[in-house]
Write a structure and sequence with these properties.
- Helix 2 runs parallel beside helix 5 and helix 3 runs parallel beside helix 4.
- The two termini are 15 Å apart.
- The chain contains 5 helices and 5 strands; from the N terminus they run βααβαβαββα.
- Helix 4 links the parallel strand 3 and strand 4.
- By secondary structure, the protein is of the alpha/beta class.
- The chain has a single domain, classed as Dehydroquinase, class II (Rossmann fold), CATH 3.40.50.
Length: 148
Amino acid sequence: MTAILVLHGPNLNALGRRDRHHYGTLTLDEINRRIAERAEHLGVSVDCFQSNHEGALIDRLQESAGRIDGVVVNAGALTHYGLSLKDALTDAGVPVVEVHLSNIHAREEWRRRSVLADTALGQIAGLGWRGYTAALEALVGIIADEAG
């Protein structure tokens, strides 16, 4: 069975009460439930993990080595400076799709640059929680295509 790791970075545990204009009203648990429902529909397994610490995200990614087929990542602010996370995503050797709840390209200048972008097959930004399920669907399709 195809296995996908979903990584949520710093401050995403505060969803639902954090700047609802940019990040929506759903909590992270609600988003994870929607991801899990979509994964079940697609016939894949999903492991969702959140941390406010870059090292913990890297540890989870490295612990998953050899057991995952792809990664969906919303690195939060680590998107803009998380070079060790970038290295770990590159080293994972599996396809990655980057997700952002808000449209980072329409926000402050510093938010527009992603140090992770060149490790990812693509980036989905500005679709709110739906970006996660869109990323999951795209990633599962890409993995299936590569498997042949």
